[in-house]
Amino acid sequence: MSIFLTILLTDPINFLIAKIFGGTKIKENKISGIWKAVWYYETGIKRHSIIQYYKVKQFGNFVIARSINDEINPTEIKAKISNNTFLTGSWVGKFEKNKGRYHGALQFLITPTGNKMNGKWIGFDTKHKVNGGDWEWILTQNKVDKEFIKQLSSEEKEENIEIASPNKT
After folding, report:
1. Rounded to 10 degrees, what is the CA torsion of 148, 154, 158, 159?
2. pLDDT tens digit string along 106-148?
3. What distances in angstroms separate CA 134 from CA 39, 48, 110, 117, 166, one per listed residue?
4. Cα–Cα distance for residue pair 69/21, rounded to 1 Å
5. pTM (2 decimals)?
6. Closest Cα partner for 34 from 19, 51, 56?
7. Segment 37-81, tens digit of pLDDT
């Protein structure tokens, strides 16, 4: 019983700490920073993509991410890193201005260099059917730079961004 309570209470507390205080420095795949994310979805025979930038905070194995350049479609992610290789969690987003909130799950494979993540998302579409697709992430900034965030808000969302080295601080 005590193990169950410890697990039940530990995860929410760790997510709260990550949300309040930000990331911690660990040697393995530190993923805190600014990430460019492209997720794909299909409508009929057409494939679409949406580009978003996320501010990622890491606390041990726990990760909180929020979109930073998309006021129309804000998204928040809560996830956990497993085996220093997989990021598994859930996402919640508000899409199509004032048409409700959507939610789902995600799983990514973190590259050994820690500057890319590729995976899948799954969730419900506007017709309450399960949908899913690819989701690709590239680390663009190791630190959360407020000037870079301001620049993202004022520029086009599609641009060439240099991939950051994950171990520079």
Report:
1. -50
2. 999 999 888 999 999 999 866 778 889 999 999 998 766 666 6
3. 6, 11, 14, 11, 23
4. 21
5. 0.70
6. 56
7. 998 988 778 888 888 899 999 999 999 999 987 666 788 999 999
Residue 34 lies in a domain: yes
**47, part of any domain:** yes
Beta strands in 33-115 (DSSP E): 33-43, 46-59, 62-67, 75-82, 86-94, 101-110
Secondary structure (3-state) at 99: coil
- Residues 14 and 42: their CA atoms lie apart, in Å, by 35
AA identity, residue 109: L
Cα separation, 163 vs 115, in Å, equals 7
Q: What is the CATH number of the domain that holds 139?
A: 2.40.128
Half-sphere exposure of 7 (CA within 13 A, CB side): 3
Q: What range does the domain containing 38 cover? A: 2-154
88 closest CA partner among 56, 60, 61: 61
